[in-house]
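quick one, 529 residues, struct below
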Amino acid sequence: MSRLLSERPRGSIALLALGVGLGICAGPAPAFERLMPELTQPHLSSLPRSEAERTRIAAITAPPASFDKAEPFEANPAGAATVRARSTTDAFSQPSGNIDFERELEFKVGNGLFKKLWISAPASTLASDGLGPLYNARSCQRCHLKDGRGHPPEGPQDDSVSMFLRLSIPAPPDEPMSEIEAFLLSAGAAAPRTRPDPVYGGQLQDFATAGHPAEYRLAVRYEHFEVALSDGEVAHLRRPSYSAEDLGYGPLAAGAMLSPRVAPPMIGLGLLEAIPAEDILALADPEDTDGDGISGRAQVVWSFEHRRPMLGRFGWKAGSPTIREQSASAFAGDIGISSPVFPDPWGECTARQQACRTAPHGDGDTRGTEIDAEGLDLVTFYSRNLAVPARRDVDNPEVLRGKKMFHATGCAACHRPKFVTHRLRDQPEQSFQLIWPMTDLLLHDMGEGLADHRPEGRASGREWRTAPLWGIGMTEQVNGHTQFLHDGRARSLLEAVLWHGGEAQAARDAVVALPKSDRAALIRYLESL
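---
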């Protein structure tokens, strides 16, 4: 749900110790190497690792030597923060398994704010007013249904509350550089320059408070086609096309680029945030110097809270650096709620939407902004501690065979199974945990089939962040559907695999060529995650 932050104007020794040498040739260092010293995590109170710890981490995060049995601790993908897998729709809504009683109370208060329905100003309920005037949902929970995965509208009776369109235009040549653009240029890692639409901003809102027109209505149409697999099996895919219809404020600007996004699952965010930046950067290989066809790139974004460039890791294109900033951005863009990070009381309303900007807002009382620092911290704490459920059937022979296929076909090259988080002084739930998120949190070219043709920060129109896979097998249980990828086009895990292209083309083709029984085992393994 985070907005595109860059839209607003505005150590080799360690790598070798981790066992992930980059094989960089002599000569000028790649851009991501030059960025490394800048991309620290100032919001985390972390302790440095000893050489002994680095050695232990390298050993425990190494690829499996065999697939005859589950690896140690594999059933607990979030380490000590893992919770028992529940057979209910609340499986993604549990607090970290290692949280203490007092901090669990904070989690529950944060949950209340996450679910709270905001209302338009002025209202007698001052703690809840300030909605919109333009918005996509009235609460965080309305997008992140049951803290899980959103879906595209299915038919005229279904709304798009858990999906919206991002929007931008190419930056005019004479437009001043933003902070992040200037930083990337100075580091030799210049990215495509974009700006929000001058009327509609950086995302389109399909709801509005009384007296204001909504910005648009999301329309999606599908073209269906078949894909032949080995052993006579045939898969049926659908290719979506999106349009912004019933525009409330005139036409979009020339060159407008639209990108559909469903709300991603919320589980495990605090653990992803606690992965050391150096461990993610160590996996980047933008020039494919090792020749394996995988060229992951680090997303680099401007932190409006910390006033510095940081590694992006949240959102479909890794457009946000921290959970707190992502949460504040979602409050502003999705609900129209101001916060200490993004204090504009009108949310995403642009200067050309003056009626929206001059409408009554909910700021100016004792809170200062419509959600104050304490409230934002509680929502951040809640989001940070939504637990990952335990794996199921890790020792099942078919699951183990599917895991072998996952590695043999090359899926694990981007969906990296394991990391160890920072030691953290004030976040015991996330501190020094062996986790299995199945992602490298890097940007990868996913081919023309999945391209949205809309750059975001360093990400091109063909690049996406590797999505974490933990909990993916419980999507139907929690959300009542099996629709995957950034826009929900895939109606099964197999369809999701078949949409992979670009750097993942070889892995996708290997899955297509597998014997039917091995392909079924691969899907069975994904369902166990």
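The radius of gyration is 22 Å.
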